[in-house]
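Below sits the subject:
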Amino acid sequence: MQAGGRAVDDVTLAEPGSGVFGQAGDLLLGVGVERATDAVDLLEGAAGVGSGAVVLRRAAARDRQVRAAAARLGVGLVELAEHASWAHVVWLLRGVLDRAASGPTLRAEGPVLDELFALADACAALVGGPITIEDTQSRVLAYSSTQAVADPARVSTIVGRRVPDEVIANLRGRGVFRRLARSDEPFFVPAGRGLGPRVVVPVRAGTEWLGSIWAVVDEAPADRVMASLAQTASVVALHLLRLRSQADLARRVSADRLRAVLSGDTVEAEGWLPPAPWRVVVLAGAHRPRAAAADPGPAEVEREIDVWEAAARRRSWRHPLLAGFDGSALTLVRDAPGDASPGTWEWLLALVEEVAGLTPTATASAGGRATRAADLDRSRREATEVQRLRDVGRVTGTSTTVEDAWAAVTNARALGGIWTEELLGPVGMLREHDELHQTAYLTTLAAWLDHPGDPRASAQGLHVHPNTLRYRLQRLSDVVELDLHDPETRLALRLQLRALGH
């Protein structure tokens, strides 16, 4: 769909007061924007995010100041007649966009979605009211083209493709979802708490609940209508099974493609990757805490991916790039300064904080920025390094990049080449002495190296008196010869002690 020469692929209700202007490619609906100054502010916000166009009521759209601002900013301006219903505009635009997006050239599940839209229209003809077909997570899969009832909950549902949280809470409090999950028959939900009356039709395949059909009605339909809705639900169930099967296939194809490019296979990668630069990120802890010694199996990794994918889609990343790789859940995000749109590093930081608010163990460990597809393998290895250090407590914080953890990563790489079975130099001798005489020379030396020239801090770390520390260092020098003034000696000693766990 085009507006003012720009491509439009989504509809967003603008909220200038909250700074909500959608994202690139959105058509912004200026509901309630009547003053010229507010309209200009909306146009500026739309230009800032690259929105496709802005829809305003006729009076605001024809204001000379507003038209000049639109021309200056290069934002398409769409005029809405004063008598036109915003609800009707939403149904019309969302229907055009969703039906266009469901074409087989863009989405493998397109034909199934087309048939679901047709079934929604058939149900709407039965009950004489608007219909939505939803999955078990209250995400809208299809809806009828006739939406004459201007129900605010309907507007928010169609625009966001998901039932608003406050509406879900309302219906859950009234026991609607409990009955929906257990019932096989359509049932009537009376009006209440700001919602109009509805008919709810469970969609099941055997004992499995697949989704539901929702109809906005004026009163409870006749028994014959309810029976027809139940029959339609059985047809919808077949389509939902097909949709789930195709979605699983599309997800596997996307994951395989991502795994290939993260392994170094960059053939044709530029054709489907988002614009560079990128980061590879290990996502962990949203499903369950990750133990340092544990090696998550494929099922655990898939559950981790499921949680992160659901969270990403809730925050508008329509096609998350997620895959399991070597026992970890990985994602690839774009990392351009100032870009916080869905699927970017700045956006992911906010997502991880949100998930961590519910599951405190949720974390993100990011590799370095990659400007070429060939660099993604390196970014993946760095992200894995950061995650391994997090697993053993060497890295903390909810979200950490390899740039943040450079010291720990450098030390870990150096330690990887140290053979603790055959330690060179005095550390091996001190280890033998500690084992034979029950002394604590290794921990004493490590504390001193961590706080050189500060006996009080070194002693505090060992929970001993500073004089005790000095005495141990004197006795230690009787066992081995050390030149602690030499920086190379101090570095070698510290690396060996760290390799031994000190």
Notes: The first strand starts at residue 2 and ends at 3.
